[in-house]
Amino acid sequence: MIVQGFEVHAITGQLSVASPELEASYLQYGDNAQKLYDIFHSPMIGASGAIFGLLIAFGMIYPNAELMILFIPVPVKAKYIIPVYVLIELSLGIGQFGGDNVAHFAHLGGAILGFILVKAWHLQGPKDYI
Fold first, then answer.
1. What is the mean pLDDT of residues 83-101?
2. Angle between the 48-61 and 104-120 helix axes, to the nearest 10 degrees?
3. Residue ranges per domain, the chain?
4. Is 102 in contact with 91 (CB distance < 8 Å)?
């Protein structure tokens, strides 16, 4: 919702349009009318933000766990691959590539919440874990 507010503000100069439920309210924004319509009327489904939070929590609790990543033929420790994945999501979110219907900032929001919860709940991995 915060990202949506920023996107709308970049187009209109305000955080919302007068009547987002009416298609006619977008027409005053000319070339950006379709983009505004898509912002307010595109469905968002999925649990990828929550899964990303779990990924971050796993990486914080088990940083030395070795993960096998598709197309990388050697195991990579979680403490190395997960931050790289977060940076990839950040760059894809900032880049706003055409035809990309992935809510990258939802992934980052899940990552932030996962980080906060691990810190707030003082979660730690087993002491004998390598």
1. 88
2. 40
3. 1-42, 46-130
4. no
- Give, rounded to a whole angstrom, the gap between the first and last alpha carbons of the chain: 40
The pLDDT of residue 116: 97
Taking only the tens place, the pLDDT of each residue in 10-20 is 888 887 777 77
121 class by beta-carbon count within 10 Å (0-12 exposed, 13-18 middle, 19+ buried):
exposed
Contact call for residues 63 and 86 (beta carbons, < 8 A): no
DSSP per-residue letters across 11-28:
HHSSSS-S-TT-GGGGGG
- Tell me the pLDDT of the chain averaged across its residues: 87
- Pair 20, 37: CB distance under 8 Å: no
